[in-house]
Write a structure and sequence with these properties.
It comes from Chelydra serpentina. With 511 residues, the chain is mainly α. It contains 26 helices and no strands. Helix 16 (288-298) packs parallel to helix 18. The longest helix is centred in the middle third of the chain and has 21 residues, at 266-286.
Length: 511
């Protein structure tokens, strides 16, 4: 390969122009004889031939020329055509110093290429030509098991780019499933094998096409058959991340469309479902934050697996799951008809939450209100248990007053879950647990008022007066609330007497 971009591009261009001239010539018997003779000569000519058995590492690759030779020779001497094309598949400049058979670390090889001397500016074009040669061989080998195996081995040994291997996997899949005939199972297996190689190559590297690749692999395995799907689920950890395995692989495998496509009987369906559940539980153990909900969904129809998934969530709740994740799972549990479990998860979520006085538009507020409504519907004991958690986690006065108001409107447990009988009496604000909530709400209003007043500007005065009116409504719910509120206002007038205009507005409204 010559040095410099211009010279390297000229090599490619001249070769392509020469081949396009040759393609204009009609091959008769005489020319086929010459072709055969030249192909054999090139294969046996040693290191001075680009198709010799041993070549210099920086010898210009012969992919484009070999593709021309292959298509020309194929109808006349298939053995020689394949021998030539397979010899030309190599791309030594990308080979590591390890022996050529060692492909255990394919994705590390390409990453070191740019630092090598000399620089191959046309490398991406060369790799795409190599891919074209492989695709041409795959197409020609359809229906020939021995040839397909040889071509597959050559691809796995010589192609180092995951995107090109993925393209070949897709090409093989298209050729194998052409509409005019039954699928070619050997070619489908080649497609799957290449797809699995891509999964392994890109598992620990960032690749923007990764989701597309995973979805495609499941489609390919579905075409190959139920045993292929079972196999990728049993070996998921070498192919997929836990999130991919649960949210894409197992979910697709368990979908109705897959079951219909495979014409599965009950026994096969159950075997596949069992593999999906095992995968789901393994993924939930490995990455509960991202996989717990998918695992619960996948295990719904099996009592023991579902219990196991629920237990994994409970164990993970104290070790790093966020309140958002726990609330999401809790709502799912309620939707599935497990209110007590939903309640348990909601209480665990509350432990992770912390809403300060000024976070009155925080997205978690809806979850807090939902958790309190759920506890309220279950009964007095559940409400009494969650209120201390609310008081500890929520310092926002408006949220606390909203919860308080909702709790005083109806009797706890009136929904009649589990057929409980209820006395129908409203809960008293003078006794636990509502007394604790009332005190916390009043305390939150007092703290928030002082916080607001430290940096209030005149344009917020009227809004502040409305806030105090809301505070008064809460104060008045207490037995001695009227006195408490009067003392509170007097206190404000004393501390903030420097804010004359604001205190005049306070006097006008509250005396």
């Amino acid at each position: 390969m010559p040095d410099g971009l211009y010279a390297q591009e000229k090599v490619c261009r001249n070769e392509e122009q020469l081949i396009s001239k040759l393609q204009e010539i009609e091959l008769d018997d005489t020319l086929v004889k010459i072709f055969r003779k030249q192909a054999v000569f090139l294969l046996e000519a040693g290191p001075y031939s680009g198709l010799g058995e041993i070549i210099h590492r920086e010898s210009v690759p012969m992919h484009t020329f070999a593709k021309y030779l292959f298509t020309s020779l194929l109808p006349h001497d298939a053995e020689l055509a394949y021998k030539t094309a397979l010899r030309a598949m190599r791309l030594l400049v990308l080979e590591s110093t390890a022996p050529s058979g060692d492909m255990s670390r394919p994705h590390h090889i390409a990453s070191v290429v740019p630092n090598r001397y000399p620089r191959w500016f046309t490398l991406s074009h060369i790799e795409s030509q190599q891919c074209e040669l492989a695709s041409t061989m795959l197409t020609a080998a359809k229906g020939d098991v021995r040839r397909l195996e040889t071509v597959l081995e050559s691809i796995q040994k010589n192609i180092h780019s995951s995107s090109h291997i993925f393209k070949l996997a897709q090409d093989a899949f298209k050729i194998a499933t052409l509409m005019d005939s039954l699928p070619d199972i050997t070619l489908l297996k080649v497609s799957l094998e290449l797809g699995l190689q891509v999964m392994r190559m890109t598992l620990s590297t960032l690749n923007w096409r990764r989701r597309e690749m995973v979805r495609w692999l499941v489609t390919c395995a579905t075409e190959v058959g139920v045993y292929a799907l079972d196999s990728i689920m049993q070996n998921w950890f070498t192919l997929f991340t836990p999130t991919e395995a649960t949210s894409i692989v197992a979910t697709t495998v368990m979908s109705n469309s897959t079951i219909v496509r495979l014409h599965l009987d009950c026994h096969q369906q159950e075997k596949l479902a069992s593999s999906a559940r095992t995968l789901a539980l393994q993924c939930a153990m490995k990455d509960p934050q991202n996989c717990a909900l998918s695992a619960l969904t996948l295990c719904e129809k099996d009592h023991i697996a579902f219990e196991t998934a629920y237990q994994i969530v409970l164990d993970a709740a104290t070790k790093g799951m966020s309140y958002t994740q726990l609330f999401t799972i809790a709502r799912y549990m309620e939707h599935r008809g497990y209110p007590m479990r939903a309640y348990k998860l909601a209480t665990l979520a509350m432990n992770h939450l912390n809403l300060s006085y000024n976070q009155d538009t925080h997205p978690a507020i809806n979850d807090v209100l939902w958790a309190c409504a759920l506890s309220h519907s279950l009964g007095k004991n559940e409400l009494a248990a969650i209120i201390p958690l609310v008081v500890k986690s929520v310092k926002c006065a408006t949220v606390l007053s909203d919860i308080l108001r909702r709790c005083t409107l109806t009797t706890p447990g009136m929904v009649g879950l589990h057929g409980r009988r209820n006395s129908g009496k409203l809960m008293s604000l003078d006794k636990a647990p509502l007394r604790q909530l009332l005190d916390a709400t009043i305390g939150a209003y007092i703290n928030t008022t002082h916080s607001r007043l430290t940096h209030i500007s005149p344009r917020h005065y009227s809004e502040f007066i409305e806030f105090l009116s809301k505070a008064r409504e809460t104060f008045l719910m207490a037995h001695d609330g009227h006195i408490q509120f009067t003392q509170f206002i007097d206190n404000l007038k004393q501390i903030y007497k420097g804010k004359k205009k604001l205190m005049m507005l306070v006097r006008e409204r509250f005396g």
